[in-house]
Amino acid sequence: MSRRGTVAGLPSPHPLGARLPAMFATDRLALGIVEACDEVLAPVLLVLDTLDSYVDPALAPPDFVAWLGSWIGEAAGAEPDSPAGQARLRAAVGAAGRRLGRAGTPDMIAATVAQVVGVEPSDVDIVDSGGATWSAQADAALPGQSVIGLAVRVHVADPQAVDHAALEAAVIAAKPAHVPHTISVVPKVVTSDGAQ
Question: Is the domain of 175 the same as that of 126?
C-alpha cells in the first residue's frame, strides 16, 4: 500500500502563523518553521476534514478501499490496479459493510445457509432462543428462552446431495459464536397442487 505524504502546494486550512503571538508575527524564522509545519500537517488536516469520504467505499481513494477491505476480509484477490478491479473491490467492500450490519440475525443466517445449500431463504427455518424488549419496570419478564440455542432446518429436494461440512461451516460463520446450534436437513414436501 502506498504511504500518504506531503502534497506540494496544498494550503493548510488552519495556518499556524496566524495563531502565533504578536511578537512572532514578523519573525521570519518563526514564520518559516510554522510554514514547514503547515506543509506537513496540511494532508493530515485534509484527511480529517473529509474522513467520512474515506470510509465510504464509493468515494475513498483506491488504496484506502483496499485497506478497508482488509479489515473485513474483502481485499483478498482484488486487482485494485485496473478500473474494473477497483469497481469490483468498491462493490464488495460496500456490500460487506451492509452484510456486517445484519450479522448474526436470523435473516442473515438463513440467507447464508440458503446460498451455501443452493435453496431460497424461505426454505430455511431458523428457531432462535433470543429476544429483545424494553420495559419501564425494572423487574419485567425477560424475552426469549432461558437456555440459549439455534436450530437450523433446511428443506431440500435431495437431503443426500447436501454438503454437510459446508453447511456446518456456514452456520458457524454466520451465527453468534457463543450460541450452540443444531442443523437438520429434511426433504422438501411438495403437495399435488405444486405448493411447498
Answer: yes
Along the chain (196 residues), what's the average pLDDT of each consecutive run of 10 residues? 63 86 90 90 85 86 85 66 83 82 88 90 91 83 84 94 92 91 90 60
Alpha helix (H) residue ranges in 2-73: 28-49, 51-54, 62-71
Taking the model in full, what pTM does it have?
0.55
Sort strands 181-187 and 124-128 into parallel, antiparallel or unpaired.
unpaired
Note whether 177 and 126 are same-domain residues.
Answer: yes
Q: In what order do the strands lie in the sheet with 124-128?
A: 124-128, 150-156, 181-187
Dmax of the chain from CA atoms?
94
Which of 84, 100, 116 terminates a domain? The answer is: 100
The amino acid sitting at 29 is L
Residue ending a domain, among 63, 80, 100, is: 100
- Looking at the chain, how many residues does it have? 196
In sequence order, the 6+-apart residues with CB closer than 8 A to the CB of 106 are 126, 128
